[in-house]
Amino acid sequence: VSGSDQEHRIGLEYALLKDRYGDLLSAADDEEMTRRLSGFAAAVRAIRAYPLTNGDTPQAAPEANGGRS
Amino acid sequence: MSMSQREFRRAGIAELAAQLRSGAVSSRELAEIADAALREHAAPLNAVAVLSSKRAAAEAAAADAELHAGIDRGALHGLPYGAKDLIAARGLPTTWGAAPLKDQQFADDAEVVRRLQLAGAVLTAKLATVELAGGGGYRQPHASLQGPGRNPWNAERWTGGSSSGSGAAVGAGAVPFALGSETWGSIVLPAAYCGIVGLRPSYGLVPRLGAMALSWSMDKIGPLARSVADAARVLEVIAGPHRDDPSTNGSTFRYQPQASLRRPRFGLVSAEIADAAPDIGAAFERLRSQLATIGDVVELDLADEPHADVAWLIVAAEAASAYEDLIESGAVRQLAAAETHAGFYSYESISAKDYIRAQRVRRKMVANVNALFNDVDVLIAPTSGRSASPIHRDTGFLGPRARPSDLGALANLAGMPGFSLPIGLDREGLPLAMHVVAPFQQDAYLVAVAERIEALLQPYAHVTDRG
To answer: What pTM does this model have?
Structure first.
């Protein structure tokens, strides 16, 4: 992902959050929000680069076993 | 009183229990000494959320009456303690350290408080926590309803978080032990910065009913205390399954003092020691020689994997759900640390797919760290690569790559138990610490190893040594 693509994506994510939370996000939050979204984007890139196969399953869900863990 | 406050501040559980049974001091007197010590030595550090003097008086009176009647509930009977203010206690506020919840109260005790009461312990205070246990990600030590957590060794230094009040109160000697909680570093770091012992139990060993949820798949409750034995005695009381807490997995814990042990194999995490401050590196040089007298020392490194990234994504996604009402209502905007406001909203950018992928990667990383235990019995690294930071400095705890210890991230992802043990002071007189991690559900083994290590290190420095 190029730097400009990444910035575009973060801008879209922020726009979605602003659309959802409206007045709860102010201009004062811009810098912090951009920093956080950039951090998550980097973290997501790191985990997407980690090799996984279809057989590498998440932990079994106790909810699907009558609630028994 | 028959016990001075100074004697009380240095005493461990066994000594207090012996004094109590000899009749030299009563539980009521211990509660009063603790109350005074909390006011004089912990409250000025912003460690006290609320004193529970009335409840403590009633519990201490009951403890005294039972001892006089020949009823002895064990090692903690009649002893004062404090609980992190995200653990519910009937009749007292439970604010989670957060301004929008400053009047919050719960009708029932948290299960761990109930178990301690059954063991005869006396709740003397709710202790400060970083707001919402730091769930929003915070840069400022002032991110708490009580203000910045000030360190008993130097009030211009931070306690660490999020069990900041528990670390400071025990470190100052105001209570012999306290309950804290850890999602990612919140027991071991305050223990390290405050010069005490912190025990993070295996995930699922201690029920969390009545405690604030931050991250269901990573939250643990555990003790901060003055010695390994004291922490183990507390764990023995609070551990064990509860039918209404599905995270508990049926495991229990029994403390066996000085349990027999074959020669341990210590796995020292080289990269984390090399990255630590020079004083910590020097302390580990000494430690390496000391450990070699009781076991085999193996140098190793953790796999080059995105441990902190995975931990951060999981905590953030789960926190977004745990705090949904606070986020949706805008109440998070009342929190003290401005950087957490946007932080909580940013969590919603994590997709379900990426959260699930993080959990799948987590599983593989746990398998990889488990494989290390074929060659070693415990993993060891500095609890933090630095001693306590200045009270006004950025904590550096914000963002997926900013946490102090890779072993800390991985151990919490894997639900592995860990001890933070003091290993001395740096040139500024601030405590340094080591983090000892054992395999999942090997809490008894961890305690046994930690006791061996502690015997090499004691006596620990104590704040009252400074005169």
So the answer is: 0.96
